[in-house]
Design brief:
Length: about 425
């Protein structure tokens, strides 16, 4: 059961509430409502930035509200200009359908679709958007939109300030999103739309449309904060790209490491936002973190909680074991499956052909070719000092050739420089 008086108190304490329409807080506190959040299928997996709205829906359901997830099979064919400096690449119908299925399976991990009281729903907006007659849409819906207001939205203004401008296709996106809200309002009595703060303009457009069309006047919108790291980097990005919720794209180990590497300035805020920690436990963890930051207890707590949330017990166990092996030097705990995971999530540019192994390539040369050392001289010196290892085994002979016997799971070699710098080399 929630340990807060109401959902608004919890969202505020977790810093998970940015903007809301007048009266939205009262509606959420005093009654049970139906709410929705939309996700366009621009990729086959959601990323960890999407966890904020997903957990928002999860928390609303916990307080008795009914969540709807809209997967934008229709709007995904158009492309949301919000937060974009350029035109989105239009996806094929086949790719959209593939992405839809991937996102649907992920969302089912977080929301209760079998609840007898307030089950969650997943709906594809292509169900109604594909049936729209253009003339009817312009007459019945377009007349409620003022061009001056549409052009004042940040997502449009930012694009108009650039030479390439914005296409009519993306300009019309806010009409479709507003129509989604109206449709859900009429068909499902859905009165709340949620989203990231970059969606505020689109959300307000939907609220205004409903209030113009309906006499009930009960539509509301709420936004969550958009996160960046302390360095200003977009949240959910790493040196290797986006950190996704798909274990085939971002293995649990990588997700664990992403949050484990949170800075001391970020970690406590992330714990509030991404976990169900109680206020009492948070105070205790904060105290420990301030007194003994070197123990990184907050980072460990966060990484464990998020990895378990997204990937379950097996995913967490795999991540912890791989962390023990790769980051703490306990290579003996690693299984072949761990090397296969690391292979799946490695940088495929770090590739060594089997032909190279057949021809003969030394450890010394390998460290230079894969940017662990700047020169053969540096490599030779480090090897003589015991500073280079393969799969946890120190190398003492710089002229030693890589052999197939050095491969793990018949496809991976991990070369380490010291204890913390690793290069995962894939062999194909």
């Amino acid at each position: 059961m929630p340990n807060f008086k109401n959902i608004i108190e919890e969202l505020r304490w977790r810093n998970a509430l940015k903007d809301f329409t007048t009266g939205a807080d009262t509606e959420l506190i005093n009654g049970n409502i139906t709410c929705y959040n939309g996700f366009d299928p621009t990729a086959k997996s959601l990323h960890i930035g999407n966890l904020i709205p997903i957990l928002g829906l999860q928390r609303l359901q916990k307080y008795g509200h009914s969540p709807i997830v809209i997967i934008g099979g229709g709007t995904g064919m158009i492309g949301d200009p919000s937060g974009r400096s350029d035109e989105r690449k239009l996806l094929s119908l086949e790719k959209i359908e593939e992405n839809l299925q991937g996102i649907r399976s992920q969302l089912e991990k977080f929301l209760d679709f079998d609840s007898k009281k307030n089950p969650a729903k997943i709906i594809n907006n292509a169900e109604w958007l594909k049936k729209i007659n253009l003339i009817d849409f312009l007459r019945d819906t377009g007349k409620f939109f003022n061009i001056n207001n549409m052009m004042s939205k940040d997502s449009v203004k930012n694009r108009l300030s650039r030479d390439e401008g914005i296409s009519f296709t993306e300009f019309s996106y806010q009409l479709l999103q507003a129509y989604d809200f109206l449709y859900l309002f009429e068909e499902y009595n859905c009165t709340f739309q949620m989203g990231g703060s970059d969606q505020w303009g689109n959300i307000v457009a939907g609220v205004d449309l409903i209030r113009k069309v309906s006499s009930k006047n009960k539509a509301h919108g709420i936004t969550y904060p958009l996160l960046t790291t302390s360095s200003g980097e977009k949240f959910g990005k790493s040196v290797d790209g986006a950190v996704t919720l798909d274990s085939e794209v971002t293995i649990p180990y990588k997700l664990f490491q992403y949050f484990f590497n949170s800075s001391d300035e970020e970690v406590l805020d992330y714990i509030k936002l991404f976990t169900d920690i109680t206020q009492k436990d948070f105070e205790e963890l904060t105290s420990v973190t301030i007194k003994e930051p070197f123990k990184r207890e907050a980072q460990i707590y966060l990484a464990k909680e998020i990895t378990f949330l997204v990937h379950g017990k097996k995913g967490l166990d795999d991540a912890l074991r791989q962390t023990e092996g790769l980051n703490k030097g306990k290579w003996e705990v690693l299984k072949n499956t761990d090397y296969e995971d690391l292979y799946k999530n490695s940088d495929k540019s770090s590739n060594l052909s089997r032909e190279k192994i057949d021809e003969g390539i030394t450890i010394q040369q390998l460290t230079v070719d894969f940017d662990l050392c700047k020169s053969l001289g540096e490599s030779k010196r480090l090897i003589s000092q015991g500073g280079i290892s393969i799969n946890g085994n120190k190398i003492l002979d710089p002229e030693k050739n890589i052999t197939y016997g050095d491969l793990k799971a018949d496809k991976v070699i991990i070369i380490s420089k010291g204890k913390k710098t690793h290069k995962i080399i894939t062999v194909d």
